[in-house]
Amino acid sequence: MKDDGILAITPLASATCKLLPVILSGGAGTRLWPVSREQHPKPFMQLSDGQSLLQKTYQRAIALPGVQQVLTVTNRELLFKTKDELAQINRTNLAAAFILEPFGRNTAPALAAAALWAEQHVGADVTLLVLPADHLITLDEAFAAAVAKACALAEQGKLVTFGIEPTAPETGFGYIETRGNSVTRFIEKPTLDKAAEFLASGNYLWNSGLFCFRVDAVLSELAQHAPSVLESVQACLGASQQLQNAGISLIELQAESFEFAPDISIDYALMENSAHVAVVPCDIGWSDIGSWNALSALQVPDPDGNRLNGQALVHDAQNCYVQGADRVVALVGVRDLIIVDTPDALLVADRHRAQDVKQIAAQLKARGHVAYKLHREVYRPWGTYTVLEEGEHFKIKRIVVKPKHALSLQMHYHRSEHWVVVSGTARVVNGEMDVLIRTNESTYIPAGIRHRLENPGILDLVMIEVQSGAYLGEDDIVRFEDVYGRT
Fold first, then answer.
1. Which has the closest alpha carbon to 19: 140, 106, 144?
2. So what's the pLDDT on residue 11?
3. Where is 436: in which H helix or E strand?
4. Superfamily designation of domain 11-287
5. Which of 336, 367, 371, 332 is nearest to 351 (CA)?
6. Which residues of the chain have pLDDT under 50?
C-alpha cells in the first residue's frame, strides 16, 4: 500500500482474473410490502420494462468478460421460481449452481458457503464477485470498469468493496471513509447532519454491499476474524446433500447444522475487522431499491410531482406515488402519499415515512397473517395457484400447471377437493383411478385419498379447485412422491 492510500492496480490482473459471480438472493424486502413478501421477495419485483431485479442482476453478471458460471445463494423455497426467472435470461445455457439455505443467517454464512463451494468446485484462485439480487445498476460500462479494477485489487489479496459516490446526505445507507483505494473505517447509517458533513468532505462513499475477493483470501480472513462462521458452515456443508446433473450443481444446506452458523453480516464479521480491505469508488447508477421512495425515483414525475402506475387518476394531488393493480386508484386533494394496491392488500403511507412500511409487515408476521408471506397468486415448481375466494370451510383456487409438469402424489386429512378443467387436459390419479380429464370435465377427491394432478400436454393446464372441509391450511398435505424433492 502506498503512503497516499492509492493501491497499484495492474491491468493484467483484471484480464487474467477467474471470475465467479455470486448472486445473493434472500431477504423479505419488508419496506416494499405489499409487493415484496417473504415467499415472493424483492428480487422478483418487476420494473417497468418487465424484468425483475434478479433477472437484471443475472444479466449483468453473465455479460462480464470470462464468466462461465454463476453461483446463486437463495432460500430453498425460492429455488424453482429463481430457476424459472434465470432460464428466461440464460439463452446460452451457462452453467448454473445453487446453494439453498433452509432459512436466512445473514451474509457472512452465505458467503462462507459460497467460498467453500467455489474452493471445492472451481479452485482457490477464483475471484468471487458478490452481487445482491435486489439492487439496480443502470450504467453497465461503468460497472464493468469498476469490476475490472476490483479484480485487479483482489489479485493482490485485497477484500474489495464498491463505494458509491454520494449525491445527497443520505441517512439510509452505511458509509465508508476512504483514502484513495484504502478504507479508513466503516460507519453505520448516520444522522442527517453527519451525512451532510460526509458529503461535504469528499472522503466518504456509500457502502453498496457489492464485494470482490479471491476465494483463498476470504477464507484466510474468515479463519482469522470469524472462525465460528467458517467452522460452522464447513460442518454444515459436510452434512449437506449435493447434486450434480444437466449443467446444474446444487447443494441444500442441512437445517440442523446450519442453525449453528452465527447470524451476522459480512461487514460486521469481516470487512470491518480485516487489515486487507480496499475500495473501488464508482458511479455505476446504483440503487438498493430500499423503499418505495427509492423505487419511485426511477420514474419521471408529471408536472405536479406525481408518479403514477396502473389505472391511477388524480385531481389536485401533488408529489404522490401510485402503483395500482387491477382497480382504478383515484386521488383527490392530497399530497406526499405512497399508495400501493395489490389484490389482497392496500398500502397508504406518508412519503416521509417510507422506511416505516416494514413495521406493518412485522405486525402481520407477528399475527400469523398470510399477507406477510404470500400473495394471492403463489408460485410453485409446477406452476401457480391463485386464491379466488375463501370463507368458513371452503376455498376456491385457480390452478395453472405448466406443460409436462405434475403436482406431488399427495393426500389431505381434513379437506376434500373438486377439480374442474377450464382449458387443457389433465391426467389425474384419484385413488385407484388414473384418467384423463378434458375441458369442462371434473373429478371429486374425498379427504384421505391419494391423488395427483399432471399436465401431459404442450399448453398450460388451467383448472378450478374447490376445497371444502374443517381445515384448509396449506400444511394439511402428506406427500408420497414428488419430482421436485419435497417429500
1. 144
2. 46
3. strand 433-437
4. Spore Coat Polysaccharide Biosynthesis Protein SpsA; Chain A (3.90.550.10)
5. 336
6. 1-4, 11-15
